[in-house]
Every structure is written in C-alpha cells, then in structure tokens.
UniProtKB/TrEMBL annotation:
Parts forming coiled coils: 44-106
Upper classification of the organism: Bacteria, Pseudomonadati, Pseudomonadota, Gammaproteobacteria, Oceanospirillales
Keyword Membrane: yes
This protein's name: Uncharacterized protein
Keywords annotated in UniProt: Coiled coil, Membrane, Transmembrane, Transmembrane helix
Length: 212
C-alpha cells in the first residue's frame, strides 16, 4: 500500500508529510524523553533492590559481629577464669612443695636423730666404762680403743635397722681412724664424747652444703 498517490494534491501531500513528521517526532520524543525516564526508573528500582539487599546483608553482618563480640567476651572471661585457676593451682603446688620440704626435713631430722641416738648410746657406754674404771682403780688397765672394738663385736645391729647400721658403720670408721693412736687415760672421755659430736658436726656441714 502506497502512502502517496499520483492524484494527491499539495494539501494532501502536506497533510501526509505532517503526519509522518508527527510520527517521527513522537518516536524521537519517546526515545529522548519518556524512554530515558523509564530506563532511569528501572535502574532506580534495581538500585533500590540492591540497596535493600545490601541493607539486609549489613544487618546480617551486624548480627554476626554482635555474636562474635559476645563469643570474644565469653572467651576472655574463660581465659580470665583459667588464669585464676592456674594461679590457684600454682599456689597449691607451692604449698605442697613447702609441705613436702617440711615432711622431708622432718623425716631427715628423725633419721638423723635415730643415728645420733645410737651414737649417743655407744658414747655413753664408753664414758660409763671410763667412770667405772676410775671408781674401781683400774685406770691402768682401761683401754678405750679395746673397749670400742668389743662394743663393735658384741653390738652388731640387725640388717633391717637402717639407722643403727649407719651409726655402727660410723662408729667402726671412727675407731679405725684412731686405731694407731695411743689414747691416754685423760683423753678417753674426749674420745667418747667426740664420737657423738663429730658426727653431728659432719651432719651440719652436709646440711650447709646442700643449702638446707
């Protein structure tokens, strides 16, 4: 179908051209006015949707942040609690170490006392024999080393008596150290008393060396 005809007059042609121009102008106006607005509206709606999505995501992140902060606070409280418990445990360990040291010291003191008590027994035996010899006038026949060897021969302790064994061995060593000496009558008391005190002095030296 032809838009223009051969028999169209000038007026008809102008009318048709005006119509065509109006249609073209309408199309141009649509694409340059209405269509851009429509596109902008669509873009705005898309941006609103994205903004809504971002708002939701931000809300979720804020919720996660609050949860993490609560978990962090809980962990910090747990750490503080554990540190407090650790300090209590360390203090308890310190107390137990002190108690153990005291028990060990008491045990060592009791053991040392048992040895010293046995050495005191030997010392008293020698001293009593010396006094008896003086009372009966047997000073010349009294020999403290011979008497010591007799005591060693007749007072062998049981193997199960640990502290008596220690005292017995120390007494034997003490006698051996003086076996080549000539102990005079007036030196017998010193010999008997030194048996006890020499061990005690050695004991104190060992304690000092060990830092006790």
């Amino acid at each position: 179908m032809k838009f223009f005809k051969k028999d169209d007059g000038v007026v008809e042609i102008l009318a048709k051209l005006t119509t065509i121009a109006g249609v073209l102008f309408g199309a141009w106006a649509y694409y340059h006015t209405i269509h851009p607005v429509f596109e902008k509206e669509m873009e705005l709606q898309n941006l609103r949707g994205e903004a809504q999505g971002l708002t939701t995501e931000i809300g979720e992140l804020n919720t996660s942040l609050v949860t993490l902060q609560q978990e962090k606070m809980s962990l910090l409280n747990s750490v503080a609690l554990f540190q407090g418990q650790l300090e209590e445990i360390r203090a308890e360990i310190g107390n137990k170490e002190i108690q153990l040291h005291e028990v060990t010291a008491n045990f060592e003191n009791a053991a040392d006392a048992a040895v010293l008590n046995k050495l005191q027994y030997y010392s008293n035996k020698l001293h009593s024999a010396h006094l008896l010899a003086a009372a009966t006038g047997n000073e010349d026949s009294f020999n403290v080393l011979s008497l010591s060897q007799e005591l060693l021969a007749t007072h062998v302790p049981d193997e199960e008596d640990k502290y008596a064994q220690i005292a017995y061995e120390y007494f034997g060593k003490y006698v051996d150290e003086h076996s080549r000496e000539e102990i005079k009558w007036d030196e017998a008391t010193e010999f008997a008393v030194s048996l006890f005190f020499d061990y005690k002095i050695d004991l104190l030296r060992r304690r000092l060396a060990d830092g006790q």
